[in-house]
Every structure is written in structure tokens, then in C-alpha cells.
Amino acid sequence: MKFIFVLIIVLFSTSIFADYIVTGKISGQVCKFGILCSFENFDAVKKDNKFYSIKKRYSKVSDYKNGQCWINIKSKNWGLFSDGINLFKGGFYQKQPNGSYKKFKPDYITFPCKKVN
Q1: Do 110 and 62 contact (CB within 8 A), yes or no?
Q2: Which are the contacts of 87, defined by CB distance < 8 A and separation ≥ 6?
Q3: Maximum Cα–Cα distance for the chain, whole Å?
């Protein structure tokens, strides 16, 4: 009986504690004025005035389907307060041909990923 209980715990815990590994380019939807939207690729994030590579492993994603992950970045559930919340969130950066970085604030990011336990 104990064996069955342990087996059930192990089987369910592996699906609960899955990680998602990025296997390709990270991109996201960027909208201006809420209607002019485009997809952009991202190369970096910025912290303490330094650029860093974007994480390649996530313990939680907003959605996972057929090897594709989505992470919602902007708050949408708070109505007008969402705009205020989103003003203070950081951004993602795209490396430009001249070596500089351009900042974007995507609604969400998406990337090909592999789910691992």
C-alpha cells in the first residue's frame, strides 16, 4: 500500500514541478497605442545598468502548447490600474546592428521550449 502511495506522489510531483527550457529565439508582441502591434525578437534584459542574456530556463510559464511557451508580461486584469502597474515593469532589449540596444515592453513573450521534469 505504501508503495502505491509513493508511486502516486512521484508521478504527480514530476508534472507539477516541471521546468521549461528555451530552445530557440525569444520574441514578443509589442503594441503601440493598443492597436499597432508587431512581433520583435529580444536578446537581453537590463539590471543595474548592465545588459544580461535572457534566462534560458523557466520554472513557470503562462501557457505551454506543442513545444511553444508563452509568458504574460503585462497585467491586464486590473482595468485602468493595469496601465499604472505596467509603467513600472522592466523591458526586453533588442541588439541593433550598431551594437546598441533598443528597449521594448512586450505584452507577452513566446519561445520554442522543451518541458522537462
Answers
A1: no
A2: none
A3: 65
